[in-house]
Design goal:
mainly alpha; 2 helices; 0% strand; rod-shaped
Length: 79
């Protein structure tokens, strides 16, 4: 399990726990702090989803570029 996966698990479980604790509503300064934490955790989760969708595309493009460069070098250099 990678470090990012461990952090993801912590973020998901802690945000779920905070949601459950404040299910009845949030009031006062305590509630504002909880909402701020939930916003940060939500932003982390959004970033991870975007990263999960974006990285396979980048990997695929890098593999295509490497294949193209290799075939070009073979053609030009005759190797």
């Amino acid at each position: 399990m990678s470090c990012a996966q461990i952090v993801d698990a912590i973020v998901i479980f802690s945000s779920f726990a905070i949601d459950i604790v404040f299910l009845g509503g949030v009031t006062g300064e305590e509630g504002q702090k909880a909402v701020a934490v939930l916003v940060v955790l939500l932003l982390w989760r959004i970033a991870r989803v975007v990263d999960g969708r974006y990285m396979p595309l980048v990997s695929s493009l890098n593999a295509d570029t490497h294949t193209h460069n290799h075939s070009l070098a073979t053609t030009v250099l005759g190797r």
